[in-house]
Write a structure and sequence with these properties.
- The chain has a 6-stranded mixed sheet. Strands 2-1-4-5 form a 4-stranded antiparallel sheet.
- 32% of the residues lie in helices and 27% in strands.
- It has a single domain, classed as P-loop containing nucleotide triphosphate hydrolases (Rossmann fold).
- The relative contact order is 0.20.
- It is of the alpha/beta class.
């Protein structure tokens, strides 16, 4: 489970500071997807960065499995992020020279102890994850041989390599057409249920919001729970 309690984040702005996240409280329970939407510049990306332990907030708690990530050192936060948090970036950022299988397997090499002895098991796990996102027959292809939707599926599978408790997803459909975007949302919903992750998903694509378990709207750094249908109708 992930829970943010009264989180505030500010950045320097000339002689003062600008507030990006303003006393935000939210939680996502295991097996659920919470959608976060709002206009550009409203603080969504900053909020996701705080949830991902990439930025320390000025104040408040970031509780991940009963650990307050806001109180961790940089080294401790890196370990927590590696072990408990999966991040799906807006762009897949795949390494051009690696196959789909290798894109996932390389996650085993990122500072985890005893990684060399686990390589065979890691490749098996990577193959299983690629099969779970519908790419079992594409695992030996490189990014230039795959479609945008397929690359995004690898991006999602890679985020799940370390069996995270929390999944953070940033605009997963922004570079896809509506049909491929809908299939990616369906995939995230299914994997969240199957793997019992607590998922936060930032999106501008309002059409997908009614399928999510909860929807939050962010404006000027502040977050409110809304009915997805009402938000779609208003736009």
């Amino acid at each position: 489970m992930i829970q943010l309690n009264n989180v505030t984040l500010t950045f320097p702005d000339g002689d003062g500071r600008v507030t990006a996240v303003d006393h935000v409280t939210l939680s996502a329970r295991p097996g659920t997807v919470t959608g976060i939407t709002g206009p550009s510049g409203s603080g969504k990306s900053s909020l996701l960065a705080v949830a991902a332990t990439l930025i320390h907030p000025d104040s408040g708690q970031v509780m991940i499995d009963e650990v307050d990530a806001a109180q961790l050192s940089a080294t401790e936060a890196t370990a927590l992020r590696r072990d408990a948090i999966g991040i799906v970036f807006q762009q897949a950022n795949l390494l051009p020279s690696l196959t789909a299988l290798e894109q996932l397997a390389v996650m085993n090499e990122l500072g985890a102890p005893h990684s060399r002895g686990r390589r065979a098991a890691v490749r098996t796990h990577a193959a299983e994850l690629l099969a779970s996102v519908g790419l079992g027959d594409q695992m030996h292809k490189r990014p230039h041989q795959l479609s945008g939707g397929q690359r995004q599926r690898i991006n999602i599978a890679r985020a799940l390599m370390n069996d995270p408790k929390v999944l953070l997803v940033d605009e997963p459909t922004s570079a896809l057409d509506q049909e491929r975007g809908a299939s990616i949302i369906e995939l995230i919903l299914r994997l969240t249920d199957e793997r019992n992750t607590s998922t936060l998903l930032v999106t501008h694509d309002l059409v997908h919001l009614p399928r999510m378990h909860a929807v939050m709207n962010m404006v000027d750094g502040q977050l409110d729970t809304v009915r997805a249908e009402a938000l779609v109708a208003a736009n």
